[in-house]
Amino acid sequence: MCVDGHMDFPLCILGPCFFTEEDLATRNMVMATGSRVPQYIQVGASFEIMCKSGYILESEWNFVVQCKKDQTVYPKCIELCVLSDAKMEENNIQLFWATSIRHVFSHLAVLDFVCRSGYTADPNSSPFQVRCLKGKMQYPKCATSVSCRITERDLNVGRLLLTNNQSLPLAIPHGGNLEFRCEQNYTLIQPSVRKCVNGTMDFPLCVFTSGKNCSTAPGIPNGDIVSLNKAAYPAGAFVEYRCQNLYTLDGLNKSFCSDGRWTAAPKCLRPCFFTEELLAKWNMTVATGSRVPRYIKIGASFRIKCNSGYVLESHSNDMIQCKRDQIIYPKCTG
């Protein structure tokens, strides 16, 4: 009512925030004190919570529910990753630190796995470095290792002999070693002891050093001969190769003159190529905020982060890797 030019206006008070047990339960939290959830609290007030078993606070410094003017602000409780012994047994893997007794890991924790004895990495396995993301992770996989079969033909082609004169054919288990020597008048160039890696063994090189001379050494694409290429080379001579910038040498970096012929020259493998548009297609950017590297060498990698609205899948790490035959991208999903 207006009285002689004056009016007392009514007072509007902000209403309190309303809570139920279900509000906290759906967010995987309970009261820190163990008491019942307050049904109402005033604007500006707060109360402490703790995460349910199997969950952890996203930020250890944020453990209060706050009643704000326009909203209720809750902390975040994120699910922990629990190691599955059954899954590790099924995939033939174990943690890198095999003596660890920990089985529960927090969000964003990184775990390193290795194959169990007698197994080797499955070619189609996910990465062996795994990040826990909101209670989920994908286990890598190892398969039964394959032995190397050494035949008489293998030795004859390379002018090789076995140091211990074992009977052929010979089976060498994965991870096992075998020592070689060369036939008479041939010289061993590479180390004599070779290792079997999942069914594959690189044989050493035997060179005939007292035979015919060789003509000019062969060139290689995207690479160069380190020294001046001569018109003729004596038996046993060699040339050394190097690759152009960002290319990767594949094979022995030398070629030898062996009885008038050059041994196999190495190859220079192309680097991986990237653009801003290519990363945008995968919903990611460079983690450091710098520009996307246009080229990186085989074996190199760089860290990424997912674009806004996307998250890294649990089985992915946050590295783009340049491999010999492919580029491995993490997965950012919306």
From TrEMBL:
- Domain Sushi positions: 212-270
Q: Name one GO molecular function term.
A: complement component C3b binding
Supply the SUPFAM superfamilies for this chain. Complement control module/SCR domain (SSF57535)
Superkingdom per UniProt = Eukaryota
Gene3D superfamilies documented for this protein:
Complement Module, domain 1
The cellular component terms of Gene Ontology attached to this UniProt record, alphabetical and capped at eight, are:
extracellular space
The protein here is known as: Sushi domain-containing protein
Q: Which organism is the protein's source? A: Ornithorhynchus anatinus (Duckbill platypus)
